[in-house]
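Hi R.,

As promised on Friday, here is the backbone we talked about, encoded as structure tokens. Could you run it through your design pipeline when you get a chance and send me back a sequence?
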């Protein structure tokens, strides 16, 4: 959570007539070795000599230059592929569901889209191959003047089109040979606080397009907090802030995200960080034993609190059609009191009445989290919560299917990441040491640099700068770079977009391809400028 509380024209195609014997070198997983310009896991044939050709021989190709780097490239001799005036994008028979991907690619490369017809010279063919490969994986084959992109699902084929687009942007050509590529982590994305700072639908959609080209697949939307509630509500219009997204705009955002194979992960944080909602429902605000209001905090001993939040969850789980829902659960101020039971006796009584004489306010808060998870599951959602909403010991334990989004070790009493991992929990990395872009840089935070992420961070670095043991790698599902609007006027939306540009690219690289990147930071930045058309 946010620390304030503590993203040509082709010539004729010539091919070598004689076959070459190619020796392939595969760099080990996570190796620090690599070839200049490639990911550390790319593979490129060792030098070899081709037999004489009656036409023309070509040097062995090098891997395409993309962000993130491809993980494996099998080099070949040939001219590669360039979009030309007769080039087109086609969809293989039986792969008609790839029409959206094909039309987008054709538009981006300024070539024809011809639909579900046989490929011809100069074409790009998209094909589904169910059961062949892991989720989001793809192969991209360039030979005989054609490109074939295949994968087990639409997302994988789409990622392949991003590789083709970036390679053409970077160098005007997609090199001869075959790319075999897949992500290292299943969850890769950007988290955006639209509660403290309002962003237009158009600005958010621009970030989605940027994310898609980087093969990122999650956009977290934190749309409710103490400062504002930023999406139109039909069940509780009284909680909505003047500047907000309409439900029609949200449907447009979600629709674009779906077409770009990005999942939107919405968040209504509770039982803390609900100041905007509580301004319309002051009777539900938590008070201490002296009658002082607890900022942003619901009184979860009042049945009306659950009713209000569950009505909002019911409405918005229907608006967002993705698989995840973020429940928040961090920084409930009652638990930050020196003696919570003495300061909030009504919560202590409610805990004991519900969970027994040994129960505490932590148990009541954990029960609140589990109850909200039970609300979103029937809507097809898998629940997430911030790491400081999970507590050790106690009578009640957070449900094991709630994913831990680890953001901080700086909070009072924060648990080490290994505690969650030892419990068998699955974790997503939002390490505030590297991945938090906090507007105005409060609380000793500084804007993160892409260079530092690129050179020092990995998904295993969950807290501070030290990685957890590699044996837990399978439980770390990925990560998101996060933008928080603590001092919303500190930057304009345009400045935010520029400020997160290189950090987002560095994050994408480290979530897609394991191991140390082969490119230096300066070379990586120069490649980004070339692909983006800014250099």
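Update: got your reply. Pasting your designed sequence below so it's all in one thread:
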């Amino acid at each position: 959570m946010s620390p304030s509380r503590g993203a040509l024209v082709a010539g004729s195609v010539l091919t070598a007539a004689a076959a070459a014997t190619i020796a392939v070198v595969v760099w080990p997983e996570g190796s620090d070795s690599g070839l200049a310009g490639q990911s550390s896991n790319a593979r490129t044939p060792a030098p070899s000599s081709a037999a004489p050709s009656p036409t023309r021989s070509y040097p062995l190709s090098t891997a395409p230059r993309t962000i993130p780097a491809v993980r494996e490239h099998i080099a070949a001799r040939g001219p590669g592929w360039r979009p030309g005036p007769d080039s087109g994008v086609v969809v293989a028979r039986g792969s008609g569901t790839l029409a959206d991907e094909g039309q987008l690619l054709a538009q981006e490369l300024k070539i024809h889209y011809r639909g579900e017809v046989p490929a011809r010279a100069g074409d790009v063919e998209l094909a589904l191959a169910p059961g062949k490969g892991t989720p989001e994986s793809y192969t991209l084959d360039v030979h005989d003047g054609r490109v074939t992109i295949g994968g087990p699902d639409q997302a994988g084929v789409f990622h392949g089109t991003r590789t083709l687009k970036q390679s053409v942007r970077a160098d005007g050509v997609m090199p001869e040979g075959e790319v075999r590529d897949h992500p290292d982590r299943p969850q890769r994305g950007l988290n955006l606080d639209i509660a403290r700072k309002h962003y237009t639908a158009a600005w958010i959609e621009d970030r989605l397009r940027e994310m898609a080209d980087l093969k990122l697949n999650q956009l977290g939307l934190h749309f409710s907090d103490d400062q504002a509630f930023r999406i139109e509500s039909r069940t509780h219009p009284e909680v909505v802030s003047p500047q907000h997204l309409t439900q029609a705009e949200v449907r447009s955002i979600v629709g674009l995200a779906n077409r770009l194979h990005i999942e939107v992960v919405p968040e209504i944080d509770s039982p803390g960080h609900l100041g905007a909602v509580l301004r319309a429902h002051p009777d539900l605000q938590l008070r201490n034993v002296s009658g002082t209001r607890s900022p942003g905090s619901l009184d979860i001993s009042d049945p009306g609190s659950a009713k209000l939040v569950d009505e909002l969850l019911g409405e918005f789980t229907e608006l967002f059609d993705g698989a995840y829902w973020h429940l928040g659960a961090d920084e409930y101020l009652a638990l930050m009191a020196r003696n919570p039971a003495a300061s909030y006796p009504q919560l202590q009584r409610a805990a004991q009445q519900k969970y027994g004489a040994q129960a505490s306010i932590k148990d009541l808060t954990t029960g609140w989290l589990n109850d909200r998870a039970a609300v979103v599951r029937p809507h097809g959602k898998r629940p997430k919560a911030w790491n400081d909403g999970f507590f050790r010991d106690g009578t009640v334990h957070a449900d094991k299917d709630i994913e831990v989004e680890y953001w901080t070790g700086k909070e009072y009493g924060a648990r080490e990441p290994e505690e969650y991992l030892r419990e068998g929990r699955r974790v997503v990395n939002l390490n505030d040491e590297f991945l938090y872009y906090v507007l105005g840089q409060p609380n000793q935070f500084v804007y993160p640099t892409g260079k530092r992420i690129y050179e020092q961070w990995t998904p295993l670095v969950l807290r501070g700068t030290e990685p957890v043991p590699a044996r837990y790698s399978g439980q770390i599902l990925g990560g998101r770079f996060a933008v928080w609007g603590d001092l919303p006027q500190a930057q304009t939306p345009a400045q935010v977009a520029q400020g997160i540009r290189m950090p987002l690219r560095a994050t994408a690289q480290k979530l897609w391809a394991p191991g140390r990147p082969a490119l230096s930071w300066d070379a990586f930045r120069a490649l980004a400028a070339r692909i983006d058309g800014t250099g």
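One thing I noticed while checking it: The chain has 14 helices and 20 strands.

Thanks again,
M.
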